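User:
Can I borrow your eye for a moment on a structure tokenisation matter? Would you put together a sequence-and-structure record for a protein of your own picking? Please set it down just below, with no commentary around it:
AI:
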Amino acid sequence: MRIEGGQGMSVHPDDYIKPELMACCGAREIADGDIVIVGTGFPTMSANIAKHTHAPGATMLQESGVYDARPARPALSVGDPCLNPGAAMIGGLVEVMGMFLQGGWVDVGFLSGSQVDKFGNINTTAIGDYDSPKSRLPGSGGANPIGALARHVLIIALHDKRSLAERVDFITTPGYLDGPGARERWGLPQGSGPKVIITNKAVLRFDESTKEAYLASYHPDTSVDEVVKLTPWKLNVADDVRETEPPRAEELRALREVLDPFRMIKIYEKRGYV
């Protein structure tokens, strides 16, 4: 079912919350026909918004192995039974990590982490020295193969100097590693890598020559100066930097009326996504 903007709604309603904006930003990175590997939260909401608006041919692949899931509500975990009814296939991790990822079938993967650096590397292993860390984190899960093998990776992060870093303390999941050519030197697929970092303040994209993240757009209610100050590396700003487009009416209709009628997305405000 494709959602169009309804009568009585402006093109860009102004009653949205920041997590809804972030979910819509993620949705806009998905093209019709993409196979998208998702978990829970922002990724599944973004993929569903895309599927119900501009990309009806996009297919969701859950980390748990459910292919072409059509959930009636946001999944609470990667194994949530709501993912199963109507799915094209119910498989497992072997199919996801083996057949789909290693076979080169996954177009887009969503990831997040405790630390993300300017090259899109993600740390979910340890804060501080690996042998005597300040904090020991849960580890990779499926993030490493997704970051290594998906054609494009969309990263969700809080925009502060704790979550972002010039260089991560430990590379759990490879972005562009230490810069141009590094992924290819380590045998990762040609042309693959992070596409965008979506934060609660801005959208960062990656420079083709340096592979460093730069400011592409800043969200309404913030500014270029604020984003630069909150970024722990010397953040380059695009010549055509602009304000992020707010959620469109059809995107909010898909999210609120079809995907998340109970507004479970509001929990992300309590997690700092404001």
Observations:
- The mean pLDDT is 93.
- The chain has two domains: 1-106+246-274, 127-245.
- The domain at 1-106+246-274 is CATH 3.40.1080.10 (Glutaconate Coenzyme A-transferase).
